[in-house]
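Private note to self, pasted from the team thread so I don't lose it. Backbone tokens:
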């Protein structure tokens, strides 16, 4: 078996989510190659070479891959991936953008969001917003799959000593162009990688109140901040903070849901958290069914008194 893992990165740093994908690749078994497609991304390739369990790193360093345009990266993945039994990427926005295109170019079906490896061709994946788990078997010559990072403990980012090889092949589809990006800069941990997440819902009432009430709690705990879709749709916070079926999937050690009712689509994004705390004025709120601890009360008084005691 030979497995190609597509590295997620920003041309400078290897995203930790790639370590979870390598862990899934190890469960499949076989030689693991990491493909770094970027521009000026030698540092990323060097980091990937240090990752435990990686036997080779392929670096496709070209301006065509600078902004990870899916059309270009997918063409490269399809070209390079022809020689592999498996192609894996993270189940993040980037992975979900690139891999289906690569699978289509290779004329194989793909399996999304695997959460367990049963065998080299058989995987488990959630369906119906995580309410059922399907076991699926691929009959393709190349298995193309995205990996839900939270389902696999990351491998160590040190200990490896893989060789880095350059890929000369340049795939510029010429059908898309990078214009600009707006990235929210935050001192807080990244949502999907954080040990603690504090999330606010419609119950916080406004964007201003979200920050007045929840920032001190997140500050005290060193937590990342998330939100329900209702809070995002109401404009309280940006949509990259949304947790749930159509947002990010998180599984931190501690998830604190404040003023969130616990709709099935929200639970789909956080119910695998190790400890769940709900703060809600409604003692019948559905979130309580998955919460390990719940505080019934007005968040505007409960959260500040919690902060005072921390
Ligand atoms: C296809 C689809 C995809 C979706 N994807 C997502 C998704 O990814 N993520 C997501 O979150 N939702 C998603 N939704 C929306 C989801 O169905 C819910 O509408 C949403 O999660 C509700 O958000 P909420 O809990 O913040 O709001 P509400 O359901 O309105 O709950 C607000 C809660 O705050 C409590 N509250 C109010 N005031 C206070 C107070 N002062 N103190 C304490 N508690 C208070 C209330 O008791 C209530 O429980 C999706 C829906 C669809 C149809």
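Design output:
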């Amino acid at each position: 078996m030979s497995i190609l893992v597509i590295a997620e990165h920003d041309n400078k740093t290897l995203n930790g989510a790639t370590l979870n994908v390598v862990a899934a690749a190890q469960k499949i078994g076989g030689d693991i190659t990491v493909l770094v497609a970027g521009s000026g991304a030698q540092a990323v390739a060097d980091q990937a070479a240090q990752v435990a369990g990686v036997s080779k790193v392929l670096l496709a360093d070209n301006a065509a891959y600078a902004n990870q345009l899916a059309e270009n990266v997918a063409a490269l993945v399809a070209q390079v991936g022809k020689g592999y039994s498996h192609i894996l990427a993270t189940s993040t926005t980037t992975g979900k953008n690139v891999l289906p295109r690569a699978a289509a170019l290779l004329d194989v079906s793909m399996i999304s969001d695997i959460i367990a490896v049963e065998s080299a061709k058989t995987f488990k994946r959630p369906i119906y917003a995580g309410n059922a788990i399907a076991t699926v078997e691929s009959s393709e010559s190349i298995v193309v799959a995205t990996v839900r990072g939270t389902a696999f403990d990351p491998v160590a980012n040190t200990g490896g000593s893989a060789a880095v090889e350059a890929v000369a092949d340049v795939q510029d589809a010429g059908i898309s162009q990078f214009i600009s990006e707006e990235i929210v800069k935050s001192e807080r941990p990244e949502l999907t990688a954080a040990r603690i997440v504090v999330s606010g819902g419609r119950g916080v009432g406004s964007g201003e109140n979200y920050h007045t009430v929840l920032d001190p709690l997140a500050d005290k705990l060193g937590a990342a901040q998330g939100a329900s879709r209702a809070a995002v749709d109401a404009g309280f916070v940006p949509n990259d903070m949304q947790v749930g079926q159509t947002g990010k999937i998180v599984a931190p050690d501690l998830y604190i849901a404040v003023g969130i009712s616990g709709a099935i689509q929200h639970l789909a994004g956080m119910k695998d958290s190790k400890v769940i705390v709900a703060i809600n004025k409604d003692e019948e709120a559905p979130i309580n069914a998955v919460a390990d601890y719940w505080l019934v009360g007005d968040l505007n008084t409960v959260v500040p008194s919690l902060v005072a005691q921390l």
